């Protein structure tokens, strides 16, 4: 770490405030400011150095030399800085270095960066700074330092000289940051219950980061609300060969991690558009709230997920932020409703009227409160009984002639979802008799199943297969059980019981 302290000020040294940047276009300046937002490293195109290697051909009698050029692309990241003079929008800084390890590894949004010898440019009428690897340098300092004498940077690039005025500047920014809040409207940061496909800003709590596959990371983000249900476009006949996934990851989260997550409110998975190394995720601290800027929201197989693109950023978000306090209050209000007779706190927020919305099925446990599927998955006992509000999004088999085994007993698998999770639940033997009210015939069983699945039928009972399905919310009873005593948790399954599809209009 190459940091030198200088007590005397040089006449040619000038520390620029961000508001004065417009007057120094095309000049090299020094800046100390707060990191408001930052993106992840990406490879540049055409900004790297090249090296020329020459050699003489062995078979060339004239001794002629040949050569080739080897290009090495730089790594780049973009920071957005603010200070007390320019904090509404801030100023972008594009940093170029020879590798990702040399780029600023900001420990937390709100930390302080010292930039030396950066060049100010303009782009689309906005002033920005450019950090060149051969002539610029930087140092990163903690932004929440309580010690007025803490001027030891946690990362340095090239040589940085720390003067008395630099230390005074760092202290002033730390004190200013304590009471600073970025002006942001709630409409600029929709809750998960308000999202649509496209690019959005999100404010949420980071629950976990997980490498599902090598260099394939997911960030789990939550704000206490439910994502909207999506139409299911897959063909029911394809379920046996191409089943709807239970989760976006190739493997489910380990149970010990799953049990630490909230059971009410959707958990959004955010993937990364570009490969990312683990040390770049150190800033995503579990249990902390963060603002994600320009996240792309998409739907896959009916499941919401986000993509952190090359244009996405993370923003400094103190725990006292107004948006965060608003989300926490709404969640606390929602949870407090659990103790009432009508436990809306664990109901999907898309259900406006409980009695009318749950009219397709009837269960025999009206006194039992509804739970979420995350409650089911994280229950402390292997065998238990639950009542949940779900959508039935798939069924295997779907062909009417295969609903029963050769012995004439019901045997099928349903895919259930709510805003918190998806599970498979079996319908077996007498539970099928309860669900379909005995054996009313193949056509009637399929008609009832279609009501669960949201399948559109014409007046003559002809099924419209090419139309997206929007299954209704229904109340079901679920029991968990295991099939192997040697691995009770690994062999845990679920089945529907004490649930009946009522006759429709």
UniProtKB/TrEMBL annotation:
Would the keyword DNA-binding be found if you checked this record's keyword annotation? Answer: yes
Q: Where in the cell is it found?
A: Chromosome, Telomere
- GO function terms (MF aspect): G-rich strand telomeric DNA binding; telomerase inhibitor activity
What cellular-component terms does GO give this entry? Answer: nuclear telomere cap complex
Q: Which CDD domains match?
A: hPOT1_OB1_like
Supply the source organism for this entry. Answer: Pisum sativum
Pfam families, alphabetized: OB_POT1A, POT1
Keyword DNA-binding among UniProt keywords: yes
Instruction: Give every Telomeric single stranded DNA binding POT1/Cdc13 domain span.
Output: 15-178
Which GO terms fall under biological process for this protein?
regulation of telomere maintenance via telomerase; telomere capping
Q: What is this protein called?
A: Telomeric single stranded DNA binding POT1/Cdc13 domain-containing protein
Q: What keywords tag this UniProt record?
A: Chromosome, DNA-binding, Telomere
Q: Which domain of life is it from?
A: Eukaryota
């Amino acid at each position: 770490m190459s940091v030198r302290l200088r007590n005397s000020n040089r006449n040619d040294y000038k520390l620029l405030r961000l508001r004065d940047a417009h007057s120094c276009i095309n000049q090299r300046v020094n800046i100390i400011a707060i990191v408001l937002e930052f993106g992840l490293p990406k490879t540049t195109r055409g900004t790297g150095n090249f090296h020329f290697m020459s050699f003489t051909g062995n078979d060339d009698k004239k001794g002629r030399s040949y050569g080739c050029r080897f290009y090495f692309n730089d790594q780049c990241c973009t920071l957005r800085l603010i200070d007390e003079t320019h904090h509404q929008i801030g100023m972008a800084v594009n940093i170029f270095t020879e590798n990702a390890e040399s780029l600023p590894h900001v420990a937390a949004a709100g930390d302080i960066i010292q930039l030396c010898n950066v060049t100010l440019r303009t782009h689309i009428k906005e002033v920005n700074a450019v950090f060149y690897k051969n002539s610029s340098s930087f140092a990163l300092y903690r932004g929440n330092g309580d010690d007025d004498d803490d001027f030891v940077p946690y990362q340095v690039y090239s040589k940085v000289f720390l003067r008395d005025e630099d230390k005074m500047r760092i202290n002033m920014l730390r004190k200013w940051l304590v009471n600073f809040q970025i002006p942001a409207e709630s409409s600029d940061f929709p809750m998960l219950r308000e999202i649509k496909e496209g690019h959005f800003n999100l404010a949420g709590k980071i629950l976990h980061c997980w490498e599902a596959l090598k260099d394939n990371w997911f960030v789990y983000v939550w704000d206490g609300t439910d994502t909207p249900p999506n139409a299911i476009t897959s063909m029911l006949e394809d379920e046996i060969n191409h089943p709807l996934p239970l989760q976006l990851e190739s493997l489910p989260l380990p149970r010990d991690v799953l049990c630490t997550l909230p059971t009410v409110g959707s958990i959004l998975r955010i993937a990364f558009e570009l490969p990312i190394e683990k040390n770049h995720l150190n800033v995503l601290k579990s249990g902390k709230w963060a603002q994600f800027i320009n996240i792309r929201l998409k739907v896959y197989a009916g499941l919401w997920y986000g993509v952190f693109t090359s244009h996405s950023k993370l923003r400094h978000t103190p725990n006292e932020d107004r948006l965060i306090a608003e989300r926490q209050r709404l969640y606390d209000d929602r949870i407090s409703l659990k103790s009432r007779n009508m436990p809306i706190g664990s109901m999907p927020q898309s259900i406006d009227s409980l009695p009318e919305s749950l009219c397709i099925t009837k269960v025999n446990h009206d006194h039992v409160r509804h739970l979420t599927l995350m409650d089911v998955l994280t229950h402390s006992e292997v065998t238990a009984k639950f009542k949940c509000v779900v959508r039935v999004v798939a069924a295997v088999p779907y062909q009417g002639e295969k609903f029963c085994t050769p012995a004439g007993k019901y045997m099928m698998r349903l895919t259930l979802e709510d805003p918190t999770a998806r599970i498979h639940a079996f319908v077996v033997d007498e539970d099928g008799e309860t669900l379909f009210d005995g054996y009313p015939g193949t056509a009637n069983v399929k008609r009832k199943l279609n009501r669960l699945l949201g399948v559109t039928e014409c007046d003559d009972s002809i099924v419209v297969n090419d139309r997206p399905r929007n299954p209704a919310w229904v109340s079901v009873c679920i029991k968990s059980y295991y099939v192997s005593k040697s691995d009770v948790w690994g062999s845990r399954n679920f089945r529907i019981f004490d649930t009946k599809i009522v006759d429709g209009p």
